[in-house]
Amino acid sequence: MHKLDGRPHRPAIGEEVLTEELRALGIRPGGVLLAHASLRSLGPVHGRSRAVVRALRAALGPQGTLVVPTFTPENSDTSLVYRRRIQGLTERQVAELRSTMPPYDRRRTPALSTGRLAEEVRTHPEALRSDHPQTSFAAVGPLSHRIVSGHSRGCHLGECSPLARLYEEGAQVLLLGVGFASCTAFHLAEYRMPEQPMQEYHCVIRVRGERIWWSYTDVALDDSDFAVLGASFERSGAPVATGRAGSADARVFGVRDAVDHAVAWMASHRRPGRRQG
């Protein structure tokens, strides 16, 4: 390892090495994998994000299916991304911005908020993507259609979303260079809790060729305690494989284990009917 401008410089790793490191983490050949990754934490890889996708697919094998979140909060006026974007704007500027926000298009709308890996999978020629205008998922592999189809526009991450299909399929989760705060699977537990707080959401969609603002009511999603929840999950004795891939710390675990633990944890740590943060 050398230093450049005082920062450590790690040599790029090859696709084959990365594949072996991913296999060593316990990714199941022929299985379904929901991947969350920080490619910056992973470090340099020969072939960049495209090689990372190839390595993940090689670890899964030809019968495996790779899934990523491809969220698009940019087309909503109820998202944190939007609220940050309009800070300091005049009413006229906000109105102009709203008038030019493009409607969600599952084939074309980029997943700007979920990183380079998500974009690499989304733009893969074999990828399929779900229809939800804010919390879509993209998948590549034999079970892609099963995972992403039927994603109701009125259900972010509940029983009518790919998360429920991942639970049913016994999928694994990979956290690569990110922590449990990024564990989308925990959101499914929110839908399985009684007396969940609800929220009205707004986003831009296209209906019969016409661009419209659409409103719907769904569970008020809250990831503010996911890091604490994840620490509890690791301490619970659930099978969580840990290791490294490239320069990144990594974890692999089952969606079912994570969601079932989250349901029990939320029942004792979240007050019914109250949003936490």
TrEMBL record:
InterPro entries: Amioglycoside_AcTrfase, Antibiotic_NAT-like. It comes from the Bacteria. Keywords: Acyltransferase, Transferase. The keyword Transferase applies. The keyword Mitochondrion does not apply. Belongs to the antibiotic N-acetyltransferase family. This is AAC(3) family N-acetyltransferase. The lineage of its organism: Bacteria, Bacillati, Actinomycetota, Actinomycetes, Kitasatosporales.
